[in-house]
Amino acid sequence: MARKKGSSDYPLELKLEALKLVEDGLTQAEVTERLGIRDPKRVKNWLWAYRREGILGLKKPRRGRPPKRENTEAYIRRLEMENALLKKFHTELHKEELAKRNIGSSTSTEKNTK
């Protein structure tokens, strides 16, 4: 699933500061407003992750498949190789189909003449 437009990653230092402010008695809404965090639920999630897993809960990498990085030249070479393989496969398949139907073979048929 794609991320929402405008979502951002926050550094670990900001997360720890937000948690400290919550521990000092500020509400989660006040913390989000003071630190400029867009989603008020974000602080709640950080607090939950910190209580459950400690600082490692705040450092977790993003879930999901990482974006594939392939340069344009390598991508073009890969597509050209795929095209060549498909052309070769198509040619072999076509020859096989002709052989099944005995079309294009060099054998001649005898005619019955009486």
Write a compact overview of the structure shown.
The protein is mainly alpha-helical. Helix content is 59%, strand content 0%.
Main beta-sheet annotation: none
Strand element count: 0
Radius of gyration: 33 Å
* DSSP summary: helix tally: 5
Explain this structure.
It is a single chain. The protein is mostly helical and about 110 residues long. It is built from five helices and no strands. Helix 2 packs across helix 3. The protein starts with 11 loop residues before the first helix and ends in a 14-residue tail after the last helix.
Fill in the keyword field for this structure.
114 residues
Write the layout of secondary structure elements.
Blueprint: H1 12-23, H2 28-35, H3 40-53, H4 55-58, H5 72-100
